[in-house]
Write a structure and sequence with these properties.
- The structure is a homodimer.
- By secondary structure, chain A is of the alpha/beta class.
- Chain A has two domains: about 170 residues, NAD(P)-binding Rossmann-like Domain (Rossmann fold); about 100 residues, 6-phosphogluconate dehydrogenase C-terminal fold (Orthogonal Bundle), CATH 1.10.3660.10.
- Helix content of chain A is about 50%, strand content about 15%.
- Chain A contains ten helices and nine strands.
- Chain A has a six-stranded parallel sheet with strand order 3-2-1-4-5-6, with helices on both faces.
- In chain A, helix 3 links the parallel strand 4 and strand 5.
- Chain A is elongated, with a radius of gyration of 21 Å.
- The two termini of chain A are about 30 Å apart.
- The interface between A and B is large, with 87 and 87 residues.
Amino acid sequence: MKLFKKVVIVGTGLIGGSIGLAIKKKKLADTVIGISRRRSTIDLARKIKAIDSGFQGLSAARGADLLILAVPVNTLVKLSPRLSKITGRECIVTDVGSTKERIVAKLDRLFPNFVGAHPLAGLEKSGVANACRCIFENALCIITPTKSTNKRSLRKVAALWKALGSRIVFMPAKKHDRITAIVSHLPHVAAFSLANSVPANYLKFAAGGFKSTTRIAASDPQAWAQIFIANKKNILNSLCIFEKNIDGIKSAIKKEDHAALIRILKRSQQIREKLA
Amino acid sequence: MKLFKKVVIVGTGLIGGSIGLAIKKKKLADTVIGISRRRSTIDLARKIKAIDSGFQGLSAARGADLLILAVPVNTLVKLSPRLSKITGRECIVTDVGSTKERIVAKLDRLFPNFVGAHPLAGLEKSGVANACRCIFENALCIITPTKSTNKRSLRKVAALWKALGSRIVFMPAKKHDRITAIVSHLPHVAAFSLANSVPANYLKFAAGGFKSTTRIAASDPQAWAQIFIANKKNILNSLCIFEKNIDGIKSAIKKEDHAALIRILKRSQQIREKLA
């Protein structure tokens, strides 16, 4: 099912590369062009057939009918003014950023056909070498239209994500950032902090529990530093909630209050058991 | 390779049941007896062949040449005086408790042939229904001898864990508790607190990151409440370190200090990448 003629992906890393693989496999476009700062990334993306051809300059975005921005959130905002002068007014522009409020506010003004999106499909691994078209299958993709979002562009971006196998949820960017602060950004702060709490000579005693709680501590520092700053207010709020929960356990331990601990841990167990 | 005649396992849950399965599969004993409070647990343990026969009373421990205590840490300390009157002086006694200092101090006095052990092989699932002899293969088993530990008993308990496929490390109970506070108990506090930080209506947006950081939040509340209290001092210390690391990220976010965040996250990434 062809949806686009020329798709241009800016940033052919884990997510950009995986989108390219899926679009090509499902034949959703005539051609898929990749733009990356690094020649080696372009070469690898071409080799694994994530893109048909690749370029280091933004001018390769000319003539696209779909532009997908798949670079870290700051880079995305930084490159957009230049890209808006290259792409035509008809070009549909979307992104995959993990934070939405700032991005949507800026890109809505720059591109007449912008539609913000965020596939909840990241991995702790980064780079096109880890790309896989499977990561979007059955994943949630949050799309964040605004009052000014063009309806046809919205339908086409939604059709793309459906074609990639994702389940779509529409919500305002503000709500997206509040939710992801809790369910995604907070666990990353916790995982990074857990990893940094372990002395090097204790690492060999780390078993399954430590490994799974810190899996995402191996995530791309560049991408996550930018997310943390972009979603500052919500993340600081979610950290307050987290610290209150930590304090609850801490105070029960101090008082050796077994009954209070059982109450707290039963609640977490019930919550966690709701997830697969 | 037969190591024991009559092995008695007190507590045929996830760990006790898995030990039974492995001992029987590898023919390490003539007979494996299970003791459990609940008839249904005994029936299931027999059904899956984790034990040859099972009883609800502690007197079934009579005549054992190996007694394995696989109940939560408080229960273990509570049952031991009675068990010490049932088992003969020759009986080797070992445990699988997640904390060691209190247990080893008490059981060393009660049993002439006690050897403390802790296989780092827990799961977030509990109960004999989830037992699997595979969980000890390639896992680390920490054995915590004291000055009074009988050498022959120590050799036999080590031989058992080797036969179950585990890698053995010997260390004092005090050191064990310091290490596990950081690499195991702290991640549990974090996971329980993360799960409790998410409002019910946000749960459907939880993706891979949240799922893996909170996997162990589904762990048995009874067992973990007891571990938290038994290893109180070390866990409170490890929480101080964790909170300092959280504060480091928090303060960098507040100041929008991108360079500081990169430094912190790169360190966590390097630490995490050392683990498989």
